From TrEMBL:
<dbReference type="GO" id="GO:0015679">
    <property type="term" value="P:plasma membrane copper ion transport"/>
</dbReference>
<dbReference type="InterPro" id="IPR058648">
    <property type="entry name" value="HH_CzcB-like"/>
</dbReference>
<dbReference type="Pfam" id="PF25973">
    <property type="entry name" value="BSH_CzcB"/>
</dbReference>
<dbReference type="Pfam" id="PF25975">
    <property type="entry name" value="CzcB_C"/>
</dbReference>
<feature type="domain" description="CzcB-like barrel-sandwich hybrid">
    <location>
        <begin position="95"/>
        <end position="249"/>
    </location>
</feature>
<dbReference type="GO" id="GO:0016020">
    <property type="term" value="C:membrane"/>
</dbReference>
<dbReference type="InterPro" id="IPR058792">
    <property type="entry name" value="Beta-barrel_RND_2"/>
</dbReference>
<comment type="similarity">
    <text>Belongs to the membrane fusion protein (MFP) (TC 8.A.1) family.</text>
</comment>
<dbReference type="GO" id="GO:0030288">
    <property type="term" value="C:outer membrane-bounded periplasmic space"/>
</dbReference>
<dbReference type="Pfam" id="PF25954">
    <property type="entry name" value="Beta-barrel_RND_2"/>
</dbReference>
<dbReference type="InterPro" id="IPR051909">
    <property type="entry name" value="MFP_Cation_Efflux"/>
</dbReference>
<keyword id="KW-0614">Plasmid</keyword>
<keyword id="KW-0813">Transport</keyword>
<dbReference type="GO" id="GO:0022857">
    <property type="term" value="F:transmembrane transporter activity"/>
</dbReference>
<dbReference type="InterPro" id="IPR058649">
    <property type="entry name" value="CzcB_C"/>
</dbReference>
<feature type="domain" description="CzcB-like alpha-helical hairpin">
    <location>
        <begin position="134"/>
        <end position="193"/>
    </location>
</feature>
<dbReference type="InterPro" id="IPR006143">
    <property type="entry name" value="RND_pump_MFP"/>
</dbReference>
Length: 405
């Protein structure tokens, strides 16, 4: 048997010979016999899956304030399908007062002007009138005569009861006292018809003589002067003269007039909720329908519908055009968030829930939407606080690549 060294020498010589012939061999042959350049058959590594985005964003109260992020506590609210119709603001029909005079005279004082606020029973003007002077004088004379006649009647009644006076005198005095009392009542009613209040009439006996020809004009309601129709010295009263001095409107509540198509009228009824909004105003308000007209305009085929809304801050000005959204089927849902709180990450709607250390990304399932409010079907519980504004900055911060360890 040949030794191992001999076999090794023969194999080495054969290999050397083949290697010498290698330049004349094809690359395929060279690869087949293992001496040529080898193809790079290594499989490239698969790209690693991106790490899931962490759902936590550390932020303290000061950082949240600097980022101008508002927090809201989520909870139940009403979501409704609404019918949107054009509308306009008008004064409340029961809160308009036309201040008119009931006597002839001239304007001596004007204490209020257009735009001034007034309260009920406040003096807003003073008139001078011979008619009111005559009526006051008549009342004072009748009152004085009645006081005297009542004293005489009481004296004659005591005398008749003591059997020292005649019954005829007693009956005559009683009849005269009844007549003078009736004249006082007639004079009082005349003053009230001219616009004097009961308190003014009671104060007449002690009033200075110069006040007899003057008559105060008071505000019948609390509100604001929107029209003043007279000037100082203007003659007012009967005989084709101006009788209206002021128009006062109470704007603490106003009406909204809606034009509803006849085809939509079966959906409308009194008591339904209405949301009022206007272009250029971020504020909205809620009112109630108080009147649905039974008549339809033959030209426009619409009916007049009236809603009443609060207006304590006088945001809603009569004459303004607004949009009214009538709630047709309203329901209360457990969790509602503002639309600005919703962001989308990888196609999934999310919100940012406030935690003790910052914010936590929370996947949510959306339900119905009404204007800028969204129902959350799942993902949030009532009472949790979420970021309501500038949430895009939180999303951007959350999407930043993290440094590798």
């Amino acid at each position: 048997m040949a030794s191992r060294s001999t076999i090794f020498v023969v194999a080495f010589a054969a290999g050397a010979g083949i290697f010498a012939l290698a330049p004349g061999l094809s690359t395929t042959v060279q690869r087949a016999i293992g001496i040529g350049p080898q193809a790079n058959t290594a499989i490239p590594p698969k790209p690693s899956a991106p790490e899931p985005i962490s759902g936590l964003l550390p932020m303290n109260d000061e950082q949240i304030k600097l980022a101008q992020i508002d927090l809201v506590e989520v909870g139940p609210a009403a979501i409704a399908k609404r019918l949107v119709v054009p509308s306009s603001i008008v004064p409340h029909g029961d809160r308009i007062a036309h201040v008119s005079v009931k006597l002839s005279g001239t304007v001596a004082e004007l204490r209020k002007n257009i735009g001034d606020d007034v309260v009920k029973d406040e003096v807003i003007a003073v008139l001078e009138s011979r008619e009111v002077a005559d009526a006051k004088s008549e009342y004072l004379a009748a009152r004085l005569t009645n006081d005297l006649q009542q004293d005489l009647f009481n004296r004659d009644r005591l005398l008749w009861e003591a059997k020292t006076g005649t019954e005829q005198q007693y009956l005559r005095s009683r009849n005269a006292a009844a007549q003078t009392s009736m004249r006082v009542n007639i004079a009082r009613q005349k003053l009230m018809a001219l616009g004097l209040a009961e308190s003014e009439i009671k104060a007449l006996p002690d009033a200075p003589e110069a006040r007899l020809r003057r008559q105060d004009v008071v505000a019948p309601i609390t509100g604001r002067v929107v029209e003043r129709k007279v000037e100082l010295g203007t003659a007012v009263g009967r005989d084709n003269l101006e009788t209206e001095l002021f128009v006062i409107v109470d704007l603490s509540r106003v009406w909204v007039e809606l034009s509803v198509a006849s085809s939509d009228l079966p959906l409308i009824q009194e008591g339904q909720s209405v949301k009022i909004s206007a272009r250029g105003l971020t504020k909205t308000t809620i009112g109630k329908i108080v009147f649905v007209s039974p008549l339809v305009d033959k030209d426009t085929r619409t009916a007049r519908v009236v809603a009443e809304i609060p207006n304590a801050e006088r945001t809603w000005r009569p004459g303004s055009f607004v949009t009214a959204a009538i709630a047709l089927n309203e329901r209360t849902v457990p969790v509602v968030v503002p639309a600005t709180a919703i962001q989308k990450l990888e196609g999934q709607p999310i919100v940012f829930v406030r935690t003790k250390d910052g914010f936590e990304k929370r996947d949510v399932v959306l339900g119905e939407r009404e204007d800028q409010a969204l129902e959350i079907v799942s993902g949030l519980t009532p009472g949790e606080a979420i970021a309501a504004t500038n949430t895009f900055s939180l999303k951007a911060e959350l999407s930043k690549p993290r440094d590798e360890d």
